[in-house]
Task: structure prediction
Amino acid sequence: MTKADLIEAMAGKIDLPKATAERAVNLIFDDIIAALKNNDKVNISGFGTFTVSERKARQGRNPKTGETIEIAASRSAKFKPGKILKDSLN
Result:
């Protein structure tokens, strides 16, 4: 399912114009992103939890040349599915 599919499904299920559904979906995503930028955990009950993972700087190796390179520290979003989501898949 793509973002466009999600918008279309939302518009059809609650009888909204597509533009309004798109705005609602974008606002939800924007709020999740803003919370993660502030290092907050986003818990959507029954669905799952989004958290931020910190990766330390480390050394890696260029597989083509074998040269050692420095990989910068970074932050990444992680998702852990909730019990209801896990149970619905099994």
